[in-house]
Amino acid sequence: MSASTTPAWKEWVFTTDHKRIGVMYLVGSMAAFVVAGLMALLIRVEQSSLGPTIFEDPTVVGDNYNTWLYFHGAAMILAFLIPGLTGFFANYFLPLMIGAADVAFPRINAFSVWLFFVAIILALMGFVIPDTPDIMWTGYPPYSVTTSANTAFYVFTVHLLGFSSILGAVNFLITVIYMRAPGMGWNQLNVFVWTTVAAFVIQLIFIPVLASAVTMLLFDKYLGTHFFDAAAGGDVLLYQNLFWFYSHPAVYVIFLPAMGVLIEVVAGMAKNMVFNYKACVYGGIFGITLLSGEVWVHHLYIAGMPDWIRVGQMVSTLLISVPVGLMVMSLWGTLYRSSITYNTAMLYAAACFFLVLIGGLTGIPLAMVSMTVHLSETSFVHAHFHYIMALFSTFAIFAGVYYWFPKMTGKMANEKIGKLGFLINFAGVNITFWPLFIIGLDGMPRRYWDYEMYPQFEPYHQVALYGAILIAIGMAITILNWIGSAIGGEKASDNPWGAQSLEWTDTVSPPGAGNFKHEIKIAADWTPYNYGK
Amino acid sequence: MKGRLLSAFAGMAAMMSSATGWAQDKLPDPAADWDHLWFEILVDLFVIGGIFAVAAAIMLIKYKAKSPDAVGNGPRLTKVQALAWAFIPATIFMADDFFLAAKGWTLWNTYRTVPENAMEIKVTGSMWNWEFEYPDGTTSTYYPDEATEADKGDGLVVPVGRAVVLRMTSTDVIHSFGMANYRVKEDLMPGRITYIWFNPKEVKNSFVTCTEFCGTNHSRMYAPVKAIAPAKFKEWLKKQADA
Amino acid sequence: MSEAAAGHHEHHWEWSWAPMAVVIGVFLILPLGFSTFFVYENVSLTIALCGIGTPILLAGIAKWVAEGLTVKPLVEGLAGVAIPLFIVSEVFIFLGLFASYWTIRLSAGEMWPPEGTPVFDKSIPLIMTVILVASSITYHVAEVKAEAKDLGSFRNWVMITLVLGFVFLGLTIYEYQHLLHMDFGPSTNSYSTAFYTITGFHASHVLVGLCIFIAVLIPAFKGLENHTFTSSAGVYWHFVDVVWFFVASQLYFW
Ligand code: HEA
Ligand code: HEA
Ligand code: CUA
Ligand SMILES: [Cu+2]
After folding, report:
1. Is the pLDDT of residue A368 over 80?
2. What CA–CA distances, in Å, run from A265 to A73, A350, A359, A495, C19?
3. What ipTM describes this predicted complex?
4. pLDDT tens series, chain B, 243 aa
5. What is the DSSP string of A408-469?
6. A2-32 residue pLDDT tens
7. What dotted CATH number matches A19-505?
8. 3-class state of residue B191 by DSSP
9. Percent of chain A scoring above 70 in pLDDT
10. Residue C122 has pLDDT above 80, yes or no
């Protein structure tokens, strides 16, 4: 197996190297993003006028719309954001940041990425099989059990991705615990490493519960069991509880690494140390992880839970803003007395400061049970989570990709095209999702392709369509810029930003097999944010 | 902040005393309370968001690099400073959370405490229409796809001035009874009965929409909600019972 | 891989086709096999998919085990801590299932067991418990023998463990058949739902454990034994054993 005798394609396709696996995660998750984004365009077109828009027959529209929306929601969350953040970023940069040659179990790492790939293939097959899945990413029974659509594909997609993530969690937690460079203490880890650790702790504990829930769904539908069948002694709400017991913490699996990436980018481009690191890590990240498991009922506020549970979970949901607030304080403080260079990465990061406020603060009324009895299941919820996921988290990913682009490819990304893409994207997302707040407050329900009862909303949907077209243009520019620059960009030095973290200071661009040129030893006063004084 | 805290406690106290019973003469109006609280929340969030947004904007502009190789010079916090920068903001955030929680809880009690003498209507959801059954056994439905008004049906008709409580269940999958105008919604499930109540205080036409995904015709599962004068309501009920 | 190369991982790109093969095998057998059988009821397609998937899966596993025994990891012994961590997530999947069972059980109140439930023969779970505990002990003995570098006894004790495990599975199948005969199937009522799901899920863990033992045993005949691998398999098996106490006590004796 020496380098000279192995053909290069084998070293790529069968790779067990964490950087190459990271790149595979990036490619896979971006593919999922593009397909799910195209579904979003179809959704927006269909909603842009009253009555059927794309097809004539309302039933055909209804069925197709439901399949698009199912794929859009499931793929964006499960196949784009989570694998993008905990697959790509964690794989590529975590070992570099802690000074390790690879992860603890490279073959299991390859196993994870292949599970992720076949899960995407399975999800895509959903479009071509008879009885395309239409159960939304939440898959609530009894509908998902009684529908003629193929629920099994949904269940197995979740299984494959879940197993992939659980193995990833074990792999990375062990890596961080046992493979840090000699001398690297817990307070010398990058914030991103901490957020990844927290995300994987959440994955390890909560995914199995989701897996059990969808397994019961599968059995109920295809083996005739009665878990969710009220008539036979089952419990209708059981599934929703188990589903959100994972899927709420899952939003922090997205939020935490997105925040981590953002803090790395800001610290690196503003050349400043992270403000109040310990409050951020031990208050913010630990606090979010601990609280994340006690708030799932805020997705069941209108589902008829006992009243006292709704009140208790309202309080704990609101309290999430305390640890989130601590992370926010550190993010903001990192700007204080800094020295900011505005390249494309920093522009995306700067936008995130405002996006996280809009997305996060609109979660507050949703968390209040008495407010949610009106807002729940309306476009207001859409606007909330698109701001925090499709805008904040996605922009954080883009900031990260631009920031580490020279490291990964050895080339500089084209700044002019990058900035143009940013401007179009930023305009597009806000034009698309602001109208949803407004019509949501007026009662526009979710998962409606038609809104005959509310004809006054049509202009808002039209504006949202124009915004979505802008996003599509901006995204195409951005993705083409990456591909183009990776092939023909200007050559990058090993540390073009002058950042202080190990992946910049101690590896070449792009890092070779084995990562580091020499043994890493960490001094007691070293930090990855060693700027200034 | 002190004022906030005080009003939070006041809110809790008010909640506790209100649990003992409503004034008979005046019907509570959750929808109006909702709008009121929404305004307060908006103010609250705009203050918080505004402070953070302005701070970010100022720093993003002010600390633009003066030269390509200038580096930041952020403060190295002492232990006390670090703790203060953690606990003071955390306390403020927490105070705001408890304030909002108390407010939300108070309104929640209004939502869940059905006034006495409320008119009880049974609601049954099924794929994909609504059926309303009045105390005397009269039923009403709505089929949006029928050609004529008469075939469509009247939907939910209620008299103004009296609280209406809906006891709801579903025959097949989960649906949700959402009335944007009355700021209320709750799911309908097979095998369970859930309830909501609302106060139709003025003559008005609005809609109930199904707000839980229930398949192909989910977006066409709606019905008008007509609040009409009590006299007219009697007439309507009689006509409906005869039909 | 030679001794010298093992010390210098950084000089070439590591690769292995085993993980991909295992994934392809799993993909063909589980999602596609299940869907063609239960959703589209196309049995010949199911047979074809499983027929292609199984050899790929086995080849992948064999290659993976072989590499695991010969290639030196970056840091040794980490699998020993990874397995307990993985078991944390296994615990939660069982918790999810038990939570569902408890919910159903408690909301039924006095109406338990629901109509259609026959009287269970309680001696079977007791015998199964004894067998599983015994197998945990025999595997422990095997580990001690391996520690003492007595590969011959090691093999024998692993084989005894395997036999006990298969007897356990056999009893499960016997009991299922017996119950099905009394018209107590997965869809009979809410109790049967939980009963078959949880015992079946546990049995599948027993099966996986036995497969791991086979993967330990085959190389042992060639004189290969990897301490971390052996003890990890043991930790997993003890976990499966402990879970059984919960399964048996909750489902048969509550
Ligand atoms: C990355 C994803 C992400 C993140 C981070 C969040 C974060 C939050 N979300 Fe959101 N949410 C979703 C993704 C996310 N959400 C999705 C996908 C759905 C819909 C699912 C579906 O039904 O399909 C949803 C739905 C949803 C609901 C259910 C609505 C409904 O269907 O009825 C609720 C209700 O409580 C909620 C609340 C919150 C809260 C309180 C936060 C908090 O974590 C936000 C905390 C942040 C801040 C508060 C801002 C920053 C903090 C400060 C500036 C400090 C000071 C602030 C205060 C003191 C208030 N969300
Ligand atoms: C990460 C999460 C994420 C992201 C990024 C997005 C992105 C977008 N989302 Fe969505 N969305 C969800 C998560 C997300 N969404 C979820 C969870 C739901 C709920 C589902 C449910 O109810 O079950 C939802 C639902 C949802 C709805 C609700 C429909 C309904 O309820 O009836 C709508 C409607 O407007 C919408 C729109 C959009 C749009 C316009 C974008 C845009 O930002 C998309 C932009 C992207 C593109 C347009 C792709 C462009 C790329 C190219 C064109 C490149 C091609 C070129 C090359 C290859 C070089 N989304
Ligand atoms: Cu009924 Cu949606
Ligand atoms: Cu949530």
Report:
1. yes
2. 28, 10, 20, 14, 33
3. 0.91
4. 444 444 554 445 444 444 444 444 578 999 999 999 999 999 999 999 999 999 999 999 999 988 888 888 888 889 999 999 999 999 999 999 999 999 999 999 999 999 988 999 999 999 889 999 999 889 999 998 888 888 888 899 999 989 999 999 999 999 999 999 999 999 999 989 999 999 998 999 999 999 999 988 999 999 999 999 999 999 999 988 887
5. HHSB---HHHHHHHHHHHHHHHHHHHHHHHHHHHTT-BTT-S--TT-GGGHHHHHHHHHHHH
6. 445 677 888 888 998 999 999 999 999 999 9
7. 1.20.210.10
8. coil
9. 99
10. yes
Cis previous bond, C125, omega within 30: no
Q: Do C92 and A173 touch (CB under 8 A)?
A: no
Where in A252-360 does DSSP place strands (E)? none
Amino acid type, A159: H
Do the Cβ atoms of C74 and A100 come within 8 Å?
yes
Q: Please tell me the distance from the alpha carbon of residue B129 to that of residue B127, in angstroms, as a whole number.
A: 6
Confidence of residue A433 (pLDDT cuts 50, 70, 90): very high
Pocket mutation for ligand 2, best pick of A72, A391, A425, A470 (most atoms within 8 Å of C-beta) = A72
* Cα(A50)–Cα(A444) distance, integer angstroms: 13
User: Which residues lie below 8 Å from residue C114, measured CB to CB, with a gap of 6+?
Assistant: A233, C108, C189, C190, C191
List helix spans (H) across chain B: 2-18, 30-62, 79-112, 149-152, 230-242
Q: Are strands B164-170 and B119-126 parallel, antiparallel or unpaired?
A: parallel
Q: What is the pLDDT of residue A5?
A: 67
Pick one of 3.20.20.150, 3.30.360.10, 2.60.40.420, 2.40.50.140 as the CATH number of B119-242: 2.60.40.420
User: Which atom of ligand 3 is closest in space to residue B214's alpha carbon?
Assistant: 2
Are B197 and B115 contacting, i.e. CB atoms less than 8 angstroms apart? Answer: yes
Report the separation in Å between the CA atom of A448 and the middle of ligand 3, taken as the mean of its atom positions.
Answer: 10
Neighbours of ion ligand 4 (CB under 5 A): A 248
Report the side by side order of strands in the sheet with B119-126: B139-142, B129-133, B119-126, B164-170, B194-198
Q: Does the beta-carbon distance from A2 to C12 stay under 8 Å? A: yes
In chain A, residues with a C-beta closer than 8 Å to the C-beta of C14 are 1, 15-17, 102, 106, 513
Largest CA distance in chain B: 87
Measured from the alpha carbon of residue B168, the closest ligand is 3
How far, in Å, are A303, A372, A397, B184, C117 from residue B177 at the CA level? 11, 13, 38, 8, 38
Phi, psi of C102 (to 5 degrees): -60, -45
CB contact under 8 A, A374 and B65: no
Please spell the DSSP secondary structure of A377-398, one letter per residue: TBHHHHHHHIIIIIIIIHHHHH
Q: B214 alpha carbon to ligand 3 midpoint, in Å?
A: 4
DSSP type of residue C228: H
Q: Which of these, A504, A155, A505, A86, lies nearest to C35 by C-alpha position?
A: A155
User: What residues in C contact A22, CB-CB < 8 Å?
Assistant: none
Domain ranges across chain A: 19-505
Amino acid at C76: E
Q: How many CA atoms lie within 13 A of A420 on its CB side?
A: 12
Q: What is the identity of the amino acid at A432?
A: T
Query: What phi, psi does B142 have (nearest 5°)?
Result: -155, 125
Number of H helices, E strands in chain B: 5, 10
pLDDT value at A65 more than 60:
yes
- Residue spans of the domains in chain B: they are 27-60+80-113, 119-242
Reported as a single tens digit per residue, the pLDDT across C75-115 is: 888 888 999 999 999 999 999 999 999 999 888 877 778 88
Q: Considering only CA atoms, which residue is closest to atom 32 of ligand 2?
A: A447
Q: Does C62 touch chain A (CB under 8 A)?
A: no
Max distance between CA atoms of chain C, in angstroms, equals: 70
Report H helices in B19-156. Answer: 30-62, 79-112, 149-152
